[in-house]
Design a protein that fits this description.
single chain, about 400 residues, SH3 type barrels, Fumarylacetoacetate hydrolase, domain 2, 8-stranded mixed sheet, about 15% helix, about 30% strand, globular
Length: about 400
């Protein structure tokens, strides 16, 4: 068996799926510890004997066609990899271990459509307090449905892709006339996303009971936001240029099978939701999440430690609501959670909340302060679940901010 650090996100219990450049060719792959495994090589060496898959399925630029084969196949591949590397069979078959530092990861799926939700009660409450009535922070619909909007799939980038500071219209505090220029309030949003693994047709709805059949796995997600542009533009139709310039996604999709041991109950939902949003069982997941800001000088500071379990609306409810009107979904579509904030300031999921609209700057170890993200800062999201000695993680979701062009 490969030697794996107990602190590794990529234990033998994980076996995520991604797509990377190996020896100059795109390959579907998985990761164990510090090594990337080429799934095409495994197939050529009969690791997946008994699983019916088309030729070339692991030689594409994304995982869409592989995911579309269904969970009986994708789970079968994962189980055979676990069996292979839980013993010395991988050595007997002469499977190559590629150091992860030598593999350039790509966006794991071709994302046809992307929807961003607004499902953290703490986050929605904080924003309501800052910008509306503190006594009525939540809008009337918030406790009755998972609020969401359709985002821009084309600007979702794999981790380590630089983010260029966006420009747009901004309304200065002392003016009634907007100005044009780079955002002065660039923010991260700590999120997770789930990847759709099964198509539906127009007019078809997915129930909360069946929703998990349509969810292939999860990723870390940073939905970058320009708060000053957003404040001016969002009325009446919601986010536009303040959101669509870039989002950062982690390269490894962690399967729902790997996350199964980490199920937990979510918050009690009051008032009772409508029947199509009701569900049974534990639908939240105990996934620890952190955010670090690293300056251009290499000085790093953790600014958030949150948890995915805080989400008020769970993924099954989000998918049921998304499709209740007959909206079709396709393999590779991405649904993001919305900002994940916890009950305490150290668990807030955005600088807007952490620095409380700029009134409580974060002190950095080099003596500087952060109200929002500065040029040449690198923001890194990490996520992992751990229980009874089993650790399953997502690695890092990082991106560096470059000055406006």
């Amino acid at each position: 068996m490969i030697s794996i650090s107990p602190l590794s996100d990529f234990s033998i219990h994980n076996i995520p799926f991604g797509c990377g450049l190996i020896n100059g060719n795109f390959r579907a792959c998985t990761r164990i510890g510090d090594f990337v495994i080429d799934l095409e090589e495994c197939r050529n060496k009969n690791v997946f004997e008994g699983l019916q898959m088309p030729d070339g399925i692991f030689m594409q630029k994304n995982l869409n066609d592989f995911i579309a084969l269904g969970k009986s196949i994708t789970s079968g591949v994962r189980k055979k990899i676990i069996a292979l590397f839980s013993s010395n069979l991988w050595s007997d078959k002469n499977i190559t271990l590629h150091p992860e530092s030598e593999v350039k990861m790509a966006l794991p799926v071709s994302i046809g459509d992307y929807t961003d939700f607004y499902s953290s009660r703490e986050h929605a409450t904080n924003v309501g307090i800052m910008f509306r009535d503190p006594q009525n922070a939540l809008l009337p619909n918030w406790l009755h449905l998972p609020v969401g909007y359709h985002g821009r799939a084309s600007s979702i980038c794999v981790a380590d892709t630089p983010v260029i500071r966006p420009k747009g219209q901004i309304l200065p505090a002392t003016s009634e006339v907007p100005v044009f220029g780079p955002t002065q309030q660039l923010d991260f949003e700590l999120e997770m996303g789930f990847v759709i693994g099964k198509n539906t047709g127009l007019g078809q709805s997915v129930s909360t009971k069946d929703a998990e059949d349509y969810i292939f796995g999860m990723v870390l997600f940073n939905d970058w936001s320009a708060r000053d542009i957003q404040k001016w533009e969002y009325v009446p139709l919601g986010p536009f240029l303040a959101k669509n310039f870039a989002s950062t996604m982690s390269p490894w999709i962690v399967t729902m099978e790997a996350l199964e041991p980490f199920r937990v109950d979510g918050p009690v939902q009051t008032p009772q939701v409508l029947p199509y949003l009701q569900f049974e069982g534990a639908k939240n997941y105990n996934i620890e999440l952190t955010v670090d800001i690293c300056t251009s000088g290499g000085v790093s500071q953790q600014v958030s430690h949150s948890n995915f379990r805080y989400m008020y609306w769970n993924m099954c409810q989000q998918l049921a609501h998304h499709t209740v009107n007959g909206c079709n979904i396709r393999v590779g579509d991405l649904m993001a959670s919305g900002t994940i904030s916890g009950p305490t300031p150290d668990s807030y999921g955005s600088m807007l909340e952490i620095a409380w609209k700029g009134t409580k700057p974060v002190s950095m170890p080099d003596g500087t302060e952060r109200k929002f993200i500065q040029d040449h800062d690198t923001v890194t999201i990490r996520g992992w679940a751990e229980h009874d000695g089993v650790r399953v993680g997502f690695g890092e979701c990082s991106a560096k901010v470059l000055p406006a062009e």
